[in-house]
Amino acid sequence: MFLKKTMERNGALIEAAAELHRKGLLLPDTYLVDMDTLLKNAAAMKAAADRSGVRLYFMLKQLGRNPEIARRLMRLGFDGAVAVDFREALSLIRAGVPLGNVGHLVQIPKGALTRILSARPQYVTVYSVEKAREIDEVCRDLGFVQKLMLRVIGKDDVLYPGQYGGFRLEELEDAARKLAGLGHVRIAGLTSFPCFLFNERTGRIEPTPNAATLQAAKKILSGMGVTIEEVNMPSATCCASIPLIRRLGGTHGEPGHGLSGTTPLHAVADCAEIPCVVYLSEISHNYGGRAYCYGGGHYRRSHVRQALVGPPREGRLLDVIPPADESIDYHFGLAGTAEVSQSVVMAFRTQIFVTRSSVALIDGLASGRPAIRGIFSPLGQRLK
User: Fold this and answer.
1) CB within 8 A of 328, min separation 6: which ones?
2) Dihedral, CA atoms, 97, 80, 70, 276, nearest 10 degrees?
3) Which of 41, 219, 255, 265 is 20 to 30 A from 71 in CA distance terms?
4) Euclidean distance between CA atoms 362 and 337, whole angstroms
5) Alpha-carbon gap, residue 75 to 56, rounded angstroms
6) Which distant-in-sequence residues (6+ apart) come within 8 Å of 246 by Cβ?
7) Residue 306: which of 289, 292, 318 has the closest Cα?
């Protein structure tokens, strides 16, 4: 999905991947993150957000919940991390990373509430009055009031399977009255997902009906005297979409793929953010007229299309035959044969936290002196 754009805009990363593999410094099934470019992307996004009066929480699940990336982003002035699930929240807490938003898209289970709330996240997103009551009980024992963000849903909203949950607009007033009776939580924010999506026909990032739902929810709660401090509009947050957040009444975005220059927009346009993540593999064997390279990093919505095989400057682009969703991704197939042990580089939409891959952070590409600054597990543990 992003290989040609990465070749055009960040060829040094592809060359570094192949060279580090040739030297035996990186094994196949490793993602490389060009930290120089990622931080440049992040700085551009932070500047765009400052101009628009938008605050940013960073999302790092797609880069393997990496604590080193998180710490560097905090130094750039980001407001904290968004933890998409409770395990990510616990990992970030162990790494000392401030939490901006927890509970969206996965609610905090009861047994983890004390540990996570003790870290004092800025917001906890809730889908139900029952979960809010659990949070209230824990915060009563801890001795503080926790700000809540309500996930709200309108009848025409975009929802993805496995991500259903939240307060329907027609039940919002009743829920708000019940929450007002709790002494150690208060409604202070609203969110939905996805608030923006890339439109292939127009070639632009555009708002979904979810954004209008947030506007309607704020109007309902404001009419009840509830002060909404944060309207969080995640999905496709990048320099191109940040002005839309402000225009539609949002206060916060949550860049994830924008940090790595890998939203769908970045596959077709030269955006402010430059692609800075590649996947390294190696030819394992040939069979039936196809080459097979090592897998482990497949994500079923990756939209992987091609791989660069061999030395980058004289390598071949081969179509990728991804593993079937019902099978374990031991290998990627390639439409053609290749020399065993040759380097293979791909660039596609990642969700590293659901893979078996390693993650190598690369510093120094901008100065022509690439160096491995750390190798991590897909869940953020340092391996080397």
Assistant:
1) none
2) 170
3) 265
4) 30
5) 13
6) 52, 53, 54
7) 318
Record the tokens describing residue 362, joined without a space: 């690369």
336: left (phi over 0), alpha (psi -120 to 50) or beta: left
- Residues 139-143 have a mean pLDDT of 98
- The predicted structure's pLDDT at residue 34: 98
3 state SS of 113: helix
Average pLDDT over residues 54-70: 97
| Domain coordinates in residue numbering, the chain | 3-34+270-376, 36-267
Give per-residue pLDDT as tens, 239-254. Answer: 999 999 999 999 999 9
Q: Give backbone dihedrals phi and psi of 199, rounded to 5 degrees, phi first.
A: -100, 110
Q: Find where tokens 């754009």 sit.
A: 5
SS3 32: strand
What letter represents residue 42's amino acid?
A
- CA 367 from chain centre, in angstroms, equals 27
Q: Is 3-34+270-376 assigned to CATH 2.40.37.30?
A: yes
pLDDT given for residue 308 in this prediction? 98
Query: Amino acid identity, residue 20?
Result: L
Under 8 Å between Cβ of 127 and 108: no
The alpha carbon of residue 106 and the mean position of all alpha carbons in its chain are separated, in whole angstroms, by: 14
Q: What is the phi/psi pair of residue 3, to 5°?
A: -65, -50
- The residues near 169 (Cβ < 8 Å, ≥ 6 apart) are 152, 153, 154, 155, 213, 216, 217, 220
CA distance 19 to 339: 16
The CA–CA distances, whole Å, from 253 to 43, 54, 373 equal: 15, 7, 29
Instruction: Provide the whole-model pTM.
Output: 0.96
Q: DSSP string covering 230-243, please?
A: EEE--SS-STTTHH
By residue count, the chain amounts to: 384
CB 122 within 8 Å of CB 99: yes
CA distances from 247 to 53, 86, 118, 226, 263 (A): 10, 32, 35, 22, 21
| Distance separating alpha carbons of residues 9 and 98, to the nearest angstrom | 33
| Start-to-end Cα distance in the chain | 29
Omega before 194 within 30 of 0, i.e. cis:
yes
Domain 36-267: give its CATH code: 3.20.20.10
